[in-house]
């Protein structure tokens, strides 16, 4: 019988495909068929779509960030005309110019004080407002300045820091507190007139030329006080009557409105110096003192007989005018105060959000273990809020590095050199009357170099937080 040929060399027998129930069972066990991997142009097509979506952002980034940075770096190596290459001369001038060095010092003061103060206040507000019912309303009020532009805030605080107490809120409050403890004089510009019986005694005081006698009225005429500046309750001056064994007299405004009247004589149209302090001085010691009545008259006992009458300097002390907030010494702290007023609300909102995520069980456990509120705050609340505090602090540091408008608006032109910061100096150098865009570009590059380490720290911190 012929035998069937065997399998050819290199062939492999394929097992028969199952049919019927066996095929259904096999498919059930094996699961659905796996999708085939994409072939052809699927990979590059996906990358092209992603690049198409990113292209507008990349174009804007290049036009608004990369190109200005590159051009500023290039321009910083040329002179003010942009035609002559000067190398690093502009950078050398930055550290040789006293005005720019002042701007560097002030920028350092801003970086140290402003973010720290705003963050600390935001932390205090966030913690304390959790304990009061009207905390939401308080947060709204504190955060409201963030809705105001820097320009508007600068105008507001330019008025707040006005030197005149009648216009500036800061000085109005300061003068009010000062006058509560040290009352200002009502006669700051009063002085003896022509042929007056009073002479200067040094230190701002005035004395009579001759000793006074009991029973002989004394005249103490002064001029120089505006009629509307006299103390409230002042009445027309009256001639003092002689009293046996006593020294009497009148201190008054020896000036008649509209002219007329007699010099060194009490006229009915003239005003008394109500509250004027009069001292009787013998051998350098005050033996008696009194204050003039509302019509300027006064009475001293027999102790004043033969003494010299003195009007002490306290009668003529200049009225306290407050603090020169926008002077060379305080202008930078004053502008920082305006910045903190705006940004403390920002810090409070972010810290408040972080505080809401703090586990209350930890705080309650610490209190049960006997920890006081200060210990809970210092050892638990602040460490748990450390990431949020870092975010707020770094954000504010970057923000104050480019502060410009507040300083430009609040600081008067006479003290802008004292309040100068790098961003303001950049503007003044590049676009001022003596513009030097080469030096201005160098300042811009320096400002970028100072900001980059803070930005790198922020990026590293965000990556660490993302890996947790």
TrEMBL record:
Region (Disordered): 1-43
Compartment(s) of residence: Cell membrane
Keywords for this protein: Cell membrane, Membrane, Transmembrane, Transmembrane helix, Transport
Domain of life: Bacteria
Record flagged with keyword DNA-binding: no
Family, as annotated: Belongs to the binding-protein-dependent transport system permease family.
Protein name: ABC transporter permease subunit
Organism encoding this protein: Streptomyces bambusae
């Amino acid at each position: 019988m012929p035998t069937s040929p065997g399998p050819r060399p290199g062939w492999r027998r394929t097992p028969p495909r199952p049919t019927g129930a066996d095929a259904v069972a096999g498919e059930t066990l094996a699961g659905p068929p796996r999708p085939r991997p994409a072939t052809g142009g699927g990979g590059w097509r996906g990358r092209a779509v992603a690049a198409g979506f990113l292209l507008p952002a990349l174009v804007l980034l290049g036009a608004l960030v990369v190109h200005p940075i590159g051009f500023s770096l290039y321009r910083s190596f040329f002179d003010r005309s942009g035609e002559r290459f000067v190398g690093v001369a502009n950078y050398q001038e930055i550290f040789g110019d006293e005005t720019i060095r002042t701007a560097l010092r002030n920028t350092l003061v801003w970086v140290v004080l402003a973010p720290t103060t705003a963050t600390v206040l935001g932390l205090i507000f966030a913690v304390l407002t959790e304990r009061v019912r009207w905390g939401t309303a308080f947060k709204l009020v504190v955060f409201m300045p963030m809705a105001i532009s820097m320009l508007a805030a600068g105008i507001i605080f330019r008025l707040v820091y006005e030197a005149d107490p009648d216009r500036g809120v800061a000085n109005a409050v300061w003068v009010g507190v000062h006058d509560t403890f040290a009352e200002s004089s009502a006669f700051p510009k009063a002085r003896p007139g022509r042929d007056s019986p009073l002479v200067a005694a040094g230190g701002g005081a005035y004395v009579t030329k001759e000793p006074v006698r009991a029973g002989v009225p004394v005249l103490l005429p002064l001029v120089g006080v505006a009629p509307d500046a006299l103390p409230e309750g002042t009445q027309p001056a009256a001639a003092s009557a002689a009293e046996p064994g006593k020294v009497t007299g009148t201190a008054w405004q020896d000036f008649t409105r509209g002219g007329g009247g007699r010099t060194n004589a009490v006229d009915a149209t003239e005003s008394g110096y109500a509250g004027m302090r009069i001292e009787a001085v013998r051998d350098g010691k005050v033996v008696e003192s009194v204050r003039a009545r509302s019509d300027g008259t006064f009475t001293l006992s027999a102790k004043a007989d033969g003494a010299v009458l003195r009007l002490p300097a306290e009668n003529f002390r200049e009225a306290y005018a407050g603090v020169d907030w926008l002077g060379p010494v305080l202008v930078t702290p004053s502008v920082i105060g305006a910045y903190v007023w705006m940004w403390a609300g920002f810090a409070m909102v972010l810290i408040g959000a972080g505080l809401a995520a703090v586990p209350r069980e930890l705080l309650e456990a610490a209190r049960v273990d006997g920890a006081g509120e200060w210990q809970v705050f210092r050892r638990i609340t602040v460490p748990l809020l450390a990431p949020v505090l870092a975010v707020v602090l770094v954000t504010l540091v970057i923000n104050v590095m480019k502060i410009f408008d507040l300083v430009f608006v609040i600081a008067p032109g006479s003290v802008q050199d004292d309040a100068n910061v790098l961003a303001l100096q950049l503007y003044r150098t590049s676009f001022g009357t003596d513009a030097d865009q080469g030096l201005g570009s160098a300042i811009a590059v320096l400002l970028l170099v100072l900001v980059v380490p803070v930005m790198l720290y922020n990026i590293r911190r965000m990556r660490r937080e993302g890996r947790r």
